Amino acid sequence: MTRLASLVLVVRNLAHALAVYEQGLGFTRVDEPSDVPSLGARHVFLRAENCLLELLEPHDETMPPGLFLRARGEGLFAMGVGVDDPGRARERLRSASVDVRGEAGRLFVRPGDAHGVLVEVGPRESAGSA
Question: Which tens digit of pLDDT belongs to each residue from 36-95?
């Protein structure tokens, strides 16, 4: 069975987002905020009982999260999905004319094919783990 493993939200202000999701809604912080140079952003992971939430605050408008924020504003940027058989998922996606990137252990469906959201597909037991 498919499982939603993680969500990535692009936010303008990481401190405000932490106030909402950690303090207000009770998500548990996995680690302290840190920079992700490859994304031009600062991020933090939070855990709920059934999902990992990554808050991503861009500081480089030329990188994908920054481009997303500038074009669309805050919101859902990516999600991780765990499936029983990533190879089979790859075949089914390709048969539906979806461009799938990556290897069977870590597949990516680009936002153009996934209705504006980057989708990472991995094995059900490890998807979205931090």
Answer: 999 999 999 999 998 999 999 999 999 999 999 999 999 999 999 999 999 999 999 999
Contact 56, 41 (CB under 8 A): yes
| Residues in CB range of 122: below 8 A, 6 or more apart | 5, 80, 81, 82, 83, 86, 105, 106, 107, 128
Model pTM?
Answer: 0.89
Q: Rounded to an integer, what distance in angstroms lies between the CA atom of residue 83 and that of residue 5?
A: 10
Alpha helices in 73-123, H assignment, sequence order: 86-95
Structure tokens at 50: 């059934």
| C-alpha–C-alpha distance, residues 118 and 121, integer Å | 10
Quickly count: other Cβ atoms within 10 Å of residue 16's Cβ: 13
